[in-house]
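hi! just following up on the protien thing from before. the input was this:
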Amino acid sequence: MRARFYPNVFEKAGIKLVVPAPEEQDYIHEKYMGELLNDKFLPETRERLLQIADELQRRHGIEGVILGGTELPLLLRDEQHHGMPLLDTSKIHAARLVRELLQ
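and the predicted 3d structure came back as:
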């Protein structure tokens, strides 16, 4: 969330990215490292992550959520939440690679 990869790529397309507040980032990092990477997918963690998405939508008017970690789509399996797409970056990258290979 603090790296510049996604912001730099999206800026070129005129899309502004926003990130969770520092305390939200700390929570996400803690749960990612302590639970998701250890194959723990708890409903309360899922609920809190979706609450953070809702809060970002209220605060910043976000239109979608980038699931930038490979384990996040395992917890957040839906393709949308309250009309916001949950963007599985692994799936997006794999689909693009297949498209490129088939051309």
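The mean pLDDT is 94.
The CA atoms of residues 67 and 88 lie 5 Å apart.
cheers
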